[in-house]
Amino acid sequence: MFGLANPDRFMRFTRPLTPVLWGLALVLLAVGTWLSFAAPADYQQGDTVRIMFIHVPAATLGLGAYAALGVSSFFALVFRHPLADAAARAAALPGAVLTGLALITGSLWGQPMWGTWWVWDARLTSVLVLFLFYLGYMALRASIDDEAKAGRAAAVLGLVGLINLPIVKFSVDWWNTLHQPASLLRAGGTSLDPAYLAPLLTMMAAYGMLFGAIWLTSIRTEVRRRRVLTLRARAAQEA
């Protein structure tokens, strides 16, 4: 794994892997979408239950993407490794999109279930804070012209944001909230009906593959961009 920290090895290893992830993501998305519409309507929620197949994977991957950003920020800050910095930067935008999608679909799901688009309970508020951390990370990087300083400052913010991840995860257990507790991963096994479990797991796998494909593509693009900047800087010095 640490051998892949070398940019050249990373680029060689991910060249054939990236299109495979894109292909798997598209296939799983197609299958998951079909299973989602084929699943029966819930006896209480009706067809709005299908929002779950978008909301839950988006929320889960939003957390996972920030974990990737935070871990990458740690290696970038401690070891000053440019590939780790590129990985952290590449995780920010897709993570923000996934978290924003989770907030939007959560509101669409919550309105018919709770009678309101938004409540300031622990789970919703902590996910909103996660979304703001993503925006803050990207804004901080964009606000500093020096890339090295921008990377270090953003890495510190990325590490601070890791504190919010367990709050998001365990908020429904620590405080009274309108948001339902975990129904997929919990002690005693899942409480989901098999008719909903298959499409949900398929969509979660699809979102995971899609994030992996976007992340690797973005890292590879960032590595190429930095190589071009380095070559331009050398050419300017020689001139």
From TrEMBL:
Q: Does the keyword Transmembrane helix apply?
A: yes
Principal localization? membrane
Q: Coiled-coil regions in this chain?
A: none
Q: Which InterPro entries match?
A: Cyt_c_assembly, Cyt_c_biogenesis_CcmC, Cyt_c_biogenesis_CcsA/CcmC
Localization in the cell: Cell inner membrane; Membrane
Q: Which keywords, in A-to-Z order, does the entry hold?
A: Cell inner membrane, Cell membrane, Cytochrome c-type biogenesis, Membrane, Transmembrane, Transmembrane helix, Transport
Look up keyword Transmembrane and say if it applies: yes
Q: Which residues form the Cytochrome c assembly protein domain?
A: 17-179
The UniProt similarity line reads: Belongs to the CcmC/CycZ/HelC family.
The free-text function statement in the UniProt record for this protein reads: Required for the export of heme to the periplasm for the biogenesis of c-type cytochromes.
Q: Which NCBIfam families match?
A: ccmC (TIGR01191)
Instruction: Kindly provide the name given to this protein in its UniProt entry.
Output: Heme exporter protein C
Q: Which organism is it from?
A: Brevundimonas pondensis
Q: Which gene specifies this protein's sequence?
A: ccmC
